[in-house]
Amino acid sequence: MSDVTLEQLRVQIDKIDDQLLDLINERGLIVQKISDLKKEKGVDPYDPVRERAILDKIAERNNGPFDTGRVQHIFKEILKTALSLQEEDRRKALLVSRKRKNENTVVTIKGQRIGDGEQRLIAGPCSVESYEQTASVAQQVKNHGIKFLRGGAFKPRTSPYDFQGLGVEGLKILKRIADEYDLAVISEIVSPHDIELAEDYLDVIQIGARNMQNFELLKAAGQSKKPVLLKRGLSATIDEFMKAAEYILYSGNENIILCERGIRTFERATRNTLDISAVPILKQETHLPVFVDVTHSTGRRDLLIPTAKAALAIGADGVMVEVHPDPSIALSDTEQQMDFAQFDEFIKALKPSGILTNA
Ligand code: PEP
Ligand code: MN
Known about the structure:
By secondary structure, the chain is of the alpha/beta class. The protein contains 12 helices and 10 strands. Manganese (II) ion (MN) binds at residues 126, 296, 322, 332-333.
């Protein structure tokens, strides 16, 4: 075969590729129009019966040289590609998405703003164990100029034999401390029936990782007037995380703070794997503030400073950490809570270094 013929054949191939490309895109646009018509009628764009009919027709018409299975596989990919266009459209159209609202949502809590470009800290014990224990942490938090105190009253523990939290008693302690120390308090609520009750005691309702897809809880939090800090589920994709936030917003509450807290992977060096790239993705795709919980994502005290720095450097609106007067006797998360000296070090590493824009 001469070089000239090879060149000619390549020209033919390039021409066919151009045509294929144009046809695939043209096909995609027609599928989009079909989807719009179906949407108007309230019909799901994906129609498996129609897909089967298309693949059967291809089998009938295929004259080779490629075998039918292979050609059908190529067409299945083309069908999937057209549908992915719809999925992207749907995602962009979510209420939490930047497409629906371009400016950042700023959540105001007791006069403090979250998501306004300044970075904040939320600190406090894993669990509210007593008034004295929580008050001593509140004092440290206040000394550092931090305005947000966290503390678990309802603790969703892996084992039923572990400390389950003080419940409503814990919420009462938080409320008392919020008033005495002029702090905003954040605590997890695990049941939709407790949302109304929580409003009397809390400034922010936390929905924990294990409850990210508790849809009744999300809907109840969506009907609340209190801001919601929503944690990413243990094995939730970013898309699922955004859709969980969508439940809250759709139900009427726009004051949502997203919190990346690590996801479960094969890696055992840390308790969870901190998905740091989730922060810029969520900032790009949604208009909501994004926090990073470095305590639960790492489960390691020695990693709190570097991961907090990474979170702030990558654009998080703030960081959450756990602090306890004596972590060795804490009723939960003894491994990763900081004592007061470590907390001082943590603050020193972030604040004077200028990495944190504000407490
Ligand atoms: C918590 O913040 O107290 C907690 C239990 O975290 P997570 O839901 O992320 O595990
Ligand atoms: Mn904890």
